[in-house]
Amino acid sequence: MKSPGRAAREPQVMTRSMDEDRITGWLGARTPGGSRVLVGIGDDAAVLRPSREHTVVTTDMLVEGVDFRRDWTTPRALGRKAVAVNMSDLAAMGARPLFFTVALALPPDIPFRWVRELHRGLIDPASARGAHLVGGDLSRSEAGGVISITAIGESIGRRVIRRSGGRAGDLLYVTGTLGRSAAGLALLRAGRLRGRTAAEREALRAHHLPEARCAEGVYLAIHGFARAMMDLSDGLSTDLPRLCAASGVDAEIDPGLVPLFPAARRWGCDPLALALDGGEDYELLFAVPKARAPRLEKIWPPRLAPITRIGRLVAGSGKVWLAKDGSRRPLPRGGYDHFLSSVRPPTAPSVP
Amino acid sequence: MKSPGRAAREPQVMTRSMDEDRITGWLGARTPGGSRVLVGIGDDAAVLRPSREHTVVTTDMLVEGVDFRRDWTTPRALGRKAVAVNMSDLAAMGARPLFFTVALALPPDIPFRWVRELHRGLIDPASARGAHLVGGDLSRSEAGGVISITAIGESIGRRVIRRSGGRAGDLLYVTGTLGRSAAGLALLRAGRLRGRTAAEREALRAHHLPEARCAEGVYLAIHGFARAMMDLSDGLSTDLPRLCAASGVDAEIDPGLVPLFPAARRWGCDPLALALDGGEDYELLFAVPKARAPRLEKIWPPRLAPITRIGRLVAGSGKVWLAKDGSRRPLPRGGYDHFLSSVRPPTAPSVP
Predict the structure, then answer these.
(1) Which chain B residues have a beta carbon less than 8 Å from that of A152?
(2) Does domain A163-330 bear CATH number 3.30.470.20?
(3) What's the whole-model pTM score?
């Protein structure tokens, strides 16, 4: 979105007769800036005021047919999700969101109203969490659409929480509920695009509109409770081994403690399997020194998403165990992997 | 590239048996950091040391079938080009490159050696111009590949050069030669993937391996010569109206002054048409106050790309004119537009 503000009337369709300047001009004129944005959309690059904090940067891309289907979601929800998954990475470092850029590759026959709605989703404050859209790129795609976002945040007190800080003996916590997004995906795969019950709607909403746990991540960083943290994008059984490997420890999970989404049973899913292997929860997973845990549980603010202790870190080298009543067995890695699975499974599960 | 450093032996193919962690671990372990990179590839986000300068951010995406063809280039050259086009945007602000992230969407059957070579191109210092790869995302694509890069730089003395600073009376300059990249594209379209003569090789090289004019942009910013600047990515006849619109002026170009690539005539191209309408030159276009121009031309360092005065800004509202011997005619906008053209034209020009 490098082009000048030819923000004239709204274009109708994004076809061959529609040029990049008009689209980006229209979008740029409707993108609010912020006090730290000196130059936003419309120049070769954005210019942002400096800060004394560390800069925290992440990038995450959503690919049509892999991460989303246009017939399963609305462009507005898609824009919000594309932003939220990036803000979730900032949250996982304990960083405050500030800015983001978006690169879009879109089929040339896409209606302009689709782009307009996507843009409304991108700048929706509920997902951007205070971050401003400061620049972008718009390209034609010969196949499906791609939404690539880079988010920039800053540390608070030059403190960030890495994956590698966990130690044997730390207690493991997660925010929110696990498996809800995967329960929503199961509904979509079965052709249920709109929920009939409150639980179905909740699952679909969790899948379409995940909430980045920014306030929770910042709280944990400011108060120094978490010494290792990451967000759960690929499922606990895939993500937790990454935290363990980075920290040089094993983890033991008590399956009886994992905060589940039990309603998923109604459409034929195993809530524990969804919680362990389902992806896209975008909850935070973090390790807390055992001595600090009672205080954390005592003062955790009710305005934030609830936290649940699910297990602990133990001596080891990157493995994850399911532990109960003194015995344990390995947790096989079964989470979402971009090169192993797809939003288009060969067979759809049945839905009652 | 969020995953931990499982940088074991080199994977052979990027198929379903190949997981994201192994690829990103392999790449992450082979990506050099820098003194300002506190956390690089391998965590949820990168962490970068603060500076007192303004942060300058840009994003640019290359899409297969639109911006590149795998059978026309090497993965290494493609990686270098993807980085260079982003650094060119930083150069256009007069900013110094520091960091970049890359999001890749790739077909699952792509050979791993292709990814390895792409990565070698991405981190090639000749294109990165001192910037460090600090993070990324790797996704499967169901169609062609997409390379989305976000580059972060910093101002020098909190000074940046915008498109909007041009005034009537300013003289217009460009760096380097215009139309060389388009001359190379014409060869590719005609099936000439390797040059037989020095001129053909020069044109192909300009197309595959454009050089971002970072040193030139920084020099112009530090010495305060340019008061409006941009890079030429879509061709002079498309880009100059953008600078004019942003500055609220018209421009007059003297076609006899434009630095051409005359050898393109040998393969049937009009060098002036390529210079005006061809894209991807990634030269800088800038406006200099008339009184400063003699000094600029006098002290311009020979180690930098040559600069050429091509015309001037005049009162107006965003139009561009071809002016010669006291008369002028409008320059129609004929440059590259993502929604108007493609690297796959309906008919290929003939090559002798």
Answers:
(1) 55, 57, 152
(2) no
(3) 0.90
